[in-house]
Amino acid sequence: MKQLIECVPNFSEGVDMHLIKLITDEIENVDGVRLLDVDPGKATNRTVVTFVGSPDAVLEAAFQAIKKSSEVIDMSKHKGEHPRFGGTDVCPLVPVSNISIKETAAYARKLAERVGKELGIPVYCYENAAFTEERRNLANCRAGEYEGLPKKLADPRWKPDFGPALFNPRTGATAIGARDFLVAYNVNLNTTSTRRANAVAYDIREKGRPVREGNQVTGKIKKDEKGDEIWVPGALKACKAIGWFIEEYGIAQVSINLTNISITPVHLAFEVACEKALARGMRVTGSELVGLIPKRAMVEAGKYFLRKQQRSAGVSEDEIIRIAVKSLGLDDLKPFNPKEKIIEFILEDTADRKLVRMTAEGFANETASESPAPGGGSVSAYIGALGVSLGTMVANLSSHKPGWDEEWEWFGDWAEKGQNLKDELLFLVDEDTRAFNRIMNAFGLPKGSEEEKAIRSAAIQDATKYAIEIPFKTMKKAYESFDIIEAMVDKGNPNSVTDAGVGALCVRSAVIGAYLNVKINASGLKDKTFLDKLLKEAGEIVDAAKAREEKILAMVNGKIR
């Protein structure tokens, strides 16, 4: 599945938008990234830019932006209210989908190394990309700001992680790091009182509230024996919050920044805010998402509320997100459109999912046309998806069967596995066609000079290997589906046992059909070591699939006689 990361560089220029345009043009010139937001601030003389894309594309765009920034921003002339120490002051990378924070940190260090080597800018790695605990905190890295850089760079303890330990008055230094996704999120209250909204904010935010002498609102803040203020922490980690009144809506809100949704996800913030508001005589009427959110956060929320209802979370992604929207009340103040608020949906290229977005009739017509694609590989992946979908259907029906309430979680777990396999097989429907197109494109490369011939030959071999790996992956994912189908024939709703049996027939056909594509594509590959190993494993999967289908059909027939 496609990996996505977000990059949020902060540039020390917020007045001259021509200069900012020069920088953002560099980002937009890189294929594979999408510029989402440009937010300049005159008082801070700083612009926050947000873009998203595949990891390699994001790294290239970030590097080009930092390079252009070093050419057009002169830090020796910079003044602004926000702390800063470089033209590209900070450049965090943020995992969005199908990538871990650890992997994102590795990309951040790779970018930092390139910036240090090629641009000669001192770079400090911070947060999850930091090499030392002291440098995890951005404030430590930026302490002294631009004016203190000459002294800082001369201190061996603050030698940059990458780049020279030399003061460049034009560029200053840069901090590059990896952090989790920050979500700006407001909870709506049935009150107009900012004071009461603030009380809920203090209840939930990590910082909490100060302990006061006498009057708990106006009293003097107590201090410990060291003279430090005493604070009682709030209920949620990685959470900042404040109460305010929104005149547009005529209500008070708890305005929340969730700085690490892996620690405190949106649904947990909502639930705890509801609990604290209720304890103070108020009710949460809904919530509001400010900006964008990764799909995983919405899916986690939907699954949380489904499980709370003791319902299977093994339903479609669209249904899970609908449950999340309704459960969080995200449509309380205005309509909520997931296509405009979820990052992956904004970036979705309909051309990438051309086939699976078709109607069943449209897919059949396209397959029957004179075009060579979609062919047997795409059809194999599709019937595999249909097969595992039948097994998943039986799991979901069984989880709701009257009298089987104690088994809902067991069936729900199988349904979730089925949904995941279904989604992977649907991805392979279009990916098989893209693999075919890669081969066609490689054969279309020029072959005049010896160098061009070598490039063309290498491209053909790479494309051929990929065209073998895709149907092989279809084989493996389809075969995994037998586990779900067999479990449902064995213990699922007996009224649906034949549905699971049809699923087994589909999955067997998917495995064998994909195997045929593996073999025909293999004829053009020169890497025989790779090929022999893969074909041996593929043949074993075919034999195992035939045996599993025979076993499952025997079980089905035994139950319906």
Largest sheet: 7 strands, mixed
- Element pattern in H and E: EEHEEHEHEHHEEHEEEEHEHHHHHHHHHH
Number of strands: 13
The CATH topology of the largest domain, please?
A: Four Helix Bundle (Hemerythrin (Met), subunit A)
The computed structural class is: alpha+beta
The figure for the number of domains is 3
Low-confidence stretches: none
Helix count?
Answer: 17
Question: What is the subunit arrangement here?
Answer: single chain
Shape: globular
The CATH architecture of the largest domain can be named as Up-down Bundle
Radius of gyration, taken over Cα atoms and rounded to an integer in Å:
28 Å
CATH superfamily of the largest domain: Formiminotetrahydrofolate cyclodeaminase monomer, up-and-down helical bundle
- CATH class designation of the largest domain: Mainly Alpha
